Amino acid sequence: MKGYLHLEDGSVYTGELEHGSTQDINGEIVFFTGMTGYQEVLTDPSYKNQIVVFTYPLIGNYGINITDDESKQPQVKAVVIYECTSAYSHYEAQYSFKEYLQKWNIPIIHHIDTRAVVKKIRSHGSMAATISPTLNQEAKPCAIYEDGVFEVTSSKLESYGEGEKHIALIDFGYKKSILTALVNRGCKVTTVPLKMMDKVAELKPDGVLLSNGPGDPEQLSSYFSQIKEIVSTYPTIGICLGHQLIALSFGAKTKKLLFGHRGANQPVYDLKTDKVFMTSQNHSYVVIGDSLKATDLKTRFYHINDDSIEGLAHSTLPIITAQFHPEAHPGPSDSEWIFDEFLDLVAATKGDILYV
Length: 356
Ligand SMILES: NC(=O)CC[C@H](N)C(=O)O
Fold this sequence. Notes:
The protein is α/β, with parallel strands linked by helices. The protein has 2 domains: 2-132, Glucose Oxidase, domain 1, CATH 3.50.30; 148-349, Class I glutamine amidotransferase (GATase) domain (Rossmann fold, 3-Layer(aba) Sandwich). It has helices at residues 38-43, 97-103, 114-124, 148-152, 176-184, 200-203, 224-231, 241-249, 337-349, and strands spanning 2-7, 12-18, 25-32, 50-54, 58-59, 78-80, 83-84, 108-110, 127-132, 158-160, 165-171, 187-193, 207-210, 236-239, 254-270, 275-287, 297-303, 309-314, 319-322. The strands form 4 sheets. A 7-stranded mixed beta barrel has the order 1-2-8-6-4-3-9. The protein has a 6-stranded mixed beta sheet with strand order 10-12-11-13-14-19, sandwiched between helices. Strands 16-15-17-18 form a 4-stranded antiparallel beta sheet. The radius of gyration is 20 Å and the shape is globular. The structure holds glutamine. Glutamine (GLN) binds at residues 46, 212-215, 240-241, 282-285. Glutamine is lined by residues 46, 212-215, 240-241, 282-285. Pathway: Amino-acid biosynthesis; L-arginine biosynthesis; carbamoyl phosphate from bicarbonate: step 1/1; Pyrimidine metabolism; UMP biosynthesis via de novo pathway; (S)-dihydroorotate from bicarbonate: step 1/3. Its EC number is 6.3.5.5. The active site is at 240 (nucleophile), 325, 327. Composed of two chains; the small (or glutamine) chain promotes the hydrolysis of glutamine to ammonia, which is used by the large (or ammonia) chain to synthesize carbamoyl phosphate. Tetramer of heterodimers (alpha,beta)4. Residues 1-132 form the Carbamoyl-phosphate synthase small subunit N-terminal domain.
């Protein structure tokens, strides 16, 4: 049936809606530029409450398999695409794109002029949107920018892997690939729900990883002092939201980019090695460079396209952070070595008395 994409600025785009319900769907609209990787995007908890526009014009051609999920279910609020194919072909595929999202009751609006929508988002910024089965002149798009982490964090401690190094993975909505990257490097990993961060000391970890997650990092301001204490006590790596939370907990500030970075070929410069590498990214917020002056955090990585901060290092503590996704999935694994660098920090400090 016909469907309509209403944006917060009043513009309306017409397409075909695949959704059983007649209810309006609201969310923040953002766009992802990778040519592949739709399954990982759908299931990445950082996309909670967001409506994702895929810029690649043909989506679904390799179907959906049972191994590439980044969490237990799709997390996006809805998807906006040009052509949605059910004619998939891949030896591992189990469902079509459409079957999978229908199973979870997630709307797809297709045959939308995605190029026009993305141009609009690039000039006006990520904004609220409504997907509606009616050309509803009264549509008032709204979006949730907070609370997402509380919806996706786990509810109990869980343990994975059997290695000698024990890493506490603080779960703000972690991607499975982050856990896998640690387990594959011989770590025992305990995932710690947001509300159980006070259990970290009891676990006696050798290192801590602060995960990715949805929404505005400021939503977690009541946890900043607890986060600062944890990351000042153990060798730490922060990824995406985790990176932002480390910066905020040391007193730096974040801001929202006009339309964010979501894709698989985002170039990042490493000031330490003087090298550029391609990264997978999915974020709206960035750390404000000037706000780092009052902290002991220093810029380690920045984005080649817009000079925004892409990662930090602490001048005295073993803390490294990445705004990009070294675990990839989707996208290049060129920056996976950051996990090795983190584990070197862990090895170098293993058994030492804490820093605080
Ligand atoms: N992938 C993430 O962790 C995203 C971080 C944060 N929600 C942002 O959009 O900037």
